[in-house]
Amino acid sequence: MANPKRGVKIPGGTGKCIRPGGHCNPEKACGKIGEPPATKKERTSMIQSYREIELSQIKPSPFNPRKSFSGPKFDELVASIKEKGVIEPIVVRSKNGAFEIVAGERRFRALSQISRENGNGDSLIPAVIRELDDDQAFEVQTIENLVREDLTELEEARCFQAYLERRKGVVALEGLAERTGVNPRYIRRRVAVLALPESVLEAWETGAVVYGHLEQLLRLNDDKEKTSLFEMVRDRNLTVKHLREEINEMSPELSTALFDLSECLTCVENSDVQKNLFGDLGGEKLCLNRKCFKQKQNNWLLANWKKYGKKYGTNGFRFMEDVWNEYNYIWSKAGSECKVCNNFVSLVELNGKPRVKTACIGDNKCFNKQSRTEKASRNNNHSQGAASQPDEPASPDWHGTYFRERFFRERIPVGFESTDLDGLEVKKLILAALLKSNRELFEWFSRNYAKREEKVERGLCCFLSAEEMLEFVLSMKPDQLRATLKDAAVQVVLQRDFSPIGRRIVGEKLLGLNLAKEWVLDEEYLNKKTKAEILKLGEEFGVFADKKAKVFLFEKLLKKRGEFKTCKKSELVRVFIESGVDLAGKVPAEILSQKWSWHGAI
Questions:
Q1: Would you identify the CATH topology of the domain 185-291?
Q2: Range list of H helices, 279-387
């Protein structure tokens, strides 16, 4: 008769060891997960025993980095224990009158859940009892967790961190890498992301962001910038690629620095230096510490403004981003009182180039008063020598605008009624309207077609004006117009705020692209995945069953036949990319998914 206290079947006798083909002898059980059997000398120095222990006598360990005990894999474990019992004993140590788990907390929690569901009270669980101090228990527990595949990425990173903090030093890192088969660089990078705000780590744990997002956020020094960009990723569903672009866009180019760059050459916030950590980030050399760059740029401008700003005739400068709309343009020659006022300044971009050559950042009342005085002075000078005329009431200055606009509003719709809608002029107008309504497209057009780089004109930093753009479009020849319309359409479809599903519809319905057949697993995709994820992909798509992969594993990587799980992550990537396995049609579900956010963009 089954022991009613157990509640589930628990096999007696020999417990199965995870060593290939091995079985533990209860009297000589080594209790070490994934290690060779203990020698006689080791068993003498490490007292241990095997027994079945009541669940109520067992307590979880505070050292365990695993915090998640739910989900599909845990449900599978519960189902397995219901059917077969606990096959592999847990490892415990005696502490404070109870037993503390060293390895096997998931089995303990699964059996506890089954006991509660069945109402069987205090069930028994097979256990190997080892005499371990805190350091020894921590060592066994950490390595046991890391060699398993079901840790979340966050739990794995915290496990690495806990081990390195307790052991300390380069030797600890190298030892951990050797015992787990994980590259030391991988360990360092995973631990590094734990310095990010907790809200970011929680999003990583839930899958709202991936490791690549965290790696990009690590490039920044300012916590407010990290939080702001994280919120952008979360709200707009930005990919890693577009997060990198956002960071690059907000980071000043080092080539625009006015100050001495000698200190920047080896700075970790120099994107050129960051290549060693994050790979080739592409583009210009950037400063990822915008605050530091701005301060140094500010100090240089303060020290050199008299010479640097002499051509603008102003008494100082302000950064445009600090002023926003709290200023008044000074279009004409500044008045005498303005010239000696500290509020008479130039508004410059972070690169030191003026966006507004002459502006007033003082009180509006003062500015308006000075403007009226200057205007009256100009009018008086203009009227000197003219014959005296009787005063007449001036016509309101809006009359010309109003009646001119009324004319065009009435006549333009009539003019279009007789226009060929398929004609060249209508296509030009369509292009002009598209450019006018889309700022990002307008700037792209200015750079690539009008060949206009950002520069200072009439005191303003601009590309083409709307009028210049219209003149340029209307002067286009048919072939140039067709090419520009096509390129503009491509730019719109690839913009971040274009619907991801809309982009997919354009690709599949209009251009005949087939995501399921044409998308191919590549090295960049695999490098963004964890080792466990790559192993899962290999099993799912039959890569590891392919003869080419098996030969590559044995002959190139010098591994035992079929032992793909012993490979490092980089080696698994090589199996996919270099073995010659046909990857066509092997498309992960996340690629084919329709999941997206209304505010997202690819």
A1: Arc Repressor Mutant, subunit A (1.10.10)
A2: 290-308, 320-323, 336-339, 364-383
